[in-house]
Amino acid sequence: MKENLDLSAHLKKFFGFSNFKGEQELIIKSVLDGQDTFVIMPTGGGKSLTYQLPALISEGTAIVISPLIALMKNQVDSIRGFVENDGIAHFMNSSLNKTEQNRVRTDLREGTTKILYVAPESLTKEENIELFKSIKISFVAVDEAHCISEWGHDFRPEYRRIKEMIKGINKDIPVMALTATATPKVQQDIMKNLGMADAKSFKASFNRSNLFYEVRAKINPEKQLIKFIREREGKSGIIYCLSRKKVEEIAEVLQVNGIKAAPYHAGLDAGTRARCQDMFLMEEVDVIVATIAFGMGIDKPDVRFVIHYDMPKSLEGYYQETGRAGRDGGEGHCLAFYDYKDIEKLEKFTAGKPISEQEIARALLNEVVAYAETAMSRRKFLLHYFGEEWDEATGDGVNMDDNMVNPKERVEAKEEIKLLLETIQNVKEKFKGRYVVDVLTGVQTSAIKSSKHEQAAFFGLGKHHDSKYWNAAIRQTLVAGFIKKNIEAYGTLELTDSGKAFIAKPESFMLIKDHDYDKLVEDANAVVNQKGGAAGDEKLLKMLKDLRRKLGKQKNLPPFVIFQDPSLEEMATQYPITNEELTNIVGVGMGKATKFGKQFIELIKQYVADNGIERPQDMVVKSVANKASNKIAIIQGIDRKVPLSDLAKSRGLTDEEFVTELENVVYSGTRINIDYYINDVLDEDHIEEIFDYFREAESDSIDSALEEFDEDYSEEELRLVRLKFMSELGN
Ligand code: ADP
Ligand code: MG
Fold it and tell me: Which of 148, 305, 335, 587 would disulfide-bridge 567, Cβ 3.0–4.6 Å?
């Protein structure tokens, strides 16, 4: 009892808090008892205090290992704030100069220092080990301990040296491991690697019941983003992208659409990054668009949404990142955009790495895919991944994900589940999900042929369902506990006891079919393509075409030089009524808008007023000049009269692609002069002949031109002169 009082008194004295949070007190007691202690607690749970407080009141020095060198100084400063003597806390990493190092060593020898933060790279330095041997070490705390495991999302090879260091000090010092994310496999790795099999474990629930999880097909994601953010005006949010380039792009798109956003990634200089963080904390910007470099150590309690523009590489990363939403317990919407193509891109990045690393990366990615495609409660799926059972009827956070709010129909699958489990048994529990699905659906892959399973009686018994169905069945039987993945074998499927019991005595099993995002994306593209042919407002389109014809006559220009059909069609859908809005229309650049736009805008304005039309204003998303950097580089190259094929090569394009790129530039209203090149490849009178043809032509079609000239000119020649023609007359 007395001890309790003491701990609370110390808590008050050093940290100014009156109560412990969660299991902090029990954890601290375990450490003070000299036990190996394992702490798994979500971000923000208050892990630091569980080693800082025992360190401050124990005899000797506690060594704290943390990978976040940038945060070490902060931590040390905050501890120094508790007491008079600065020597109480130090850090040891490569940033210290000789004098500073000596100061640290002296304080350690004199026993002044209670907490020493050590960077992973300094762990096994001979001189450090010698020093640690000569002083009293109270315990070693390993923060972010998941870094020990290759199966974590943030493996740091230096973390494997911790064991060596502890051995080197050669003392029976208690070890403490702390992490915010760890699957059961990673937990095992940590305990094994730190030799703390008998550790006392403290695991707080990972359930964040105030967070709402949602996954959407990545269709027109920028438009979805802007709509989502506009509906949450003034609220803080973070958008994660995988590449720096994407970060910059998205931040720009948001900015031009009137959203206060700033980019953040490791490629920006330290000053800019710090400024971004400050602006976010001070709410001068609402949205930070960032790579995963952002967020470590950020403690903004009222982040209202976290968006994954790209799917992350692992669910651990995903959970850590979404965990930054709603830390104050208030609203926190976690939205992710999913497209299987992104996963394939991520897989490609791992090529060239050692096989085992590739296998691990793929296994982690498969979990991400499973999460995205599943139609079961996302919270249930996530918590199961982290080794926690959660009841969707009674657990905290019911109806807080898209799948629970919009449940898909369930169908009886008793026979199918039995068949699935039997198939896993039949292939001797030696294969991964994909293989089992191929066996069920009767696909003769080379892997199947090499184990002769295509000749087995059970081959193809599940043909009456597709692979999507069987993948869903595997995921749901996993969560139901009928099968488990052997992680060491990169995810081969094995039966559990309850799985075997199910085969012996099958029961009702209501299966939910997965989402089919591929189909959604396909359908959406089909709609977009259709739209290419048909404008929203036929009547207006006709009026616009009339105007174009009239204007053409006046200026003695073929109509297609003024605006192309797709531009008019989009005008008849979006109803632009200002110059700025007009430039958002496909194929309309500043040049064209200024030269021809006025009458079109007036016509549309009149039409909108006359017919009382509600313009789809809020959904007009302004785009940043597409591939702006390509465009500028091309224009500059042409100004310098660089041969076109050299320019193409330097942009990584084929000649043909390059001409297409030029057409985009010219058709959106920029004037370029490629005479220096055309004059090289064509005679003057030939150029004139083609030029005159376009002046009289009905359309700018290259096929018609080829026909007209009976293939006297190549397609490329015709396209080049057409570029000259459009540039000189249209822009
Ligand atoms: P973690 O490392 O688990 O992510 P931190 O150790 O950084 O979490 O603590 C998160 C926040 O909780 C900090 O702002 C810390 O001051 C606060 N905190 C920790 N323990 C308590 C407590 N007992 N009472 C109030 N606040 C606490
Ligand atoms: Mg921490």
Answer: 587
Report the atom number in ligand 1 closest to the C-alpha of 21. Answer: 23
Q: Could you tell me which residue, 81 or 379, shows the higher pLDDT?
A: 379
**How does pLDDT run across 107-140, given as a tens digit for each residue?**
999 999 999 999 988 888 888 999 999 999 999 9
CATH number of the domain located at residue range(s) 211-405 in this protein: 3.40.50.300
Whether the model clears a pTM of 0.90, i.e. scores above it, the answer is no
Angle formed at CA 691 by CA 685 and CA 696, multiple of 5 degrees: 125
Cβ count within 10 A of residue 699:
14
pLDDT digits 0-9 by tens, 317-347: 999 999 999 988 899 999 999 998 898 889 8
Domain boundaries, the chain: 7-203, 211-405, 410-514, 533-619, 628-730
Q: Which two tokens stand for residue 439?
A: 């066996």
Q: Please state which of the four CATH numbers 1.10.150.80, 3.50.50.60, 3.40.1160.10, 2.60.200.20 is assigned to the domain occupying 533-619.
A: 1.10.150.80
C-alpha of residue 179 to centroid of ligand 2, in Å? 8
DSSP state of 401: B
- What is the distance between the alpha carbons of residues 123 and 531, in angstroms, rounded to a whole number? 62
Which residues contact residue 425 at a Cβ distance below 8 angstroms, ignoring those fewer than 6 apart?
A: 495, 503
- Secondary structure (3-state) at 178: strand
Please give the Cα distance from 18 to 352 (Å, whole number). Answer: 54
Task: Classify residue 220 by its DSSP letter.
Answer: S
Integer Cα distance of 52 and 66 in angstroms? 13
**Pocket mutation for ligand 1, best pick of 10, 13, 43, 49 (most atoms within 8 Å of C-beta):** 49
Torsion of CA 374, 376, 380, 382, to 10 degrees: 10
pLDDT at 305: 97
Q: Token pair for residue 40?
A: 């798994």
DSSP state of 458: T
Query: Distance between CA 405 and CA 377 in Å, rounded?
Result: 9
List CB contacts of 182: < 8 A, sequence separation 6 or more: 40, 145, 146, 149, 152, 190, 316, 386
Please tell me the chain's helix, strand, coil percentages from 3-state DSSP, rounded to the nearest 5: 55, 10, 35
The angle, 0 to 180 degrees and rounded to 10, between the axes of the packed helices 655-667 and 715-730 is 20
Name the token pair of 649.
């090569």
Whether residue 48 has its Cβ less than 6 Å from ligand 1: yes
Q: Which ligand lies nearest the alpha carbon of 49?
A: 1
- Ligand 1 atom 25: the closest Cα is on which residue? 17
pLDDT digits (tens, 9 = 90+) for 443-487: 999 999 999 999 999 999 999 999 999 999 998 999 888 999 888
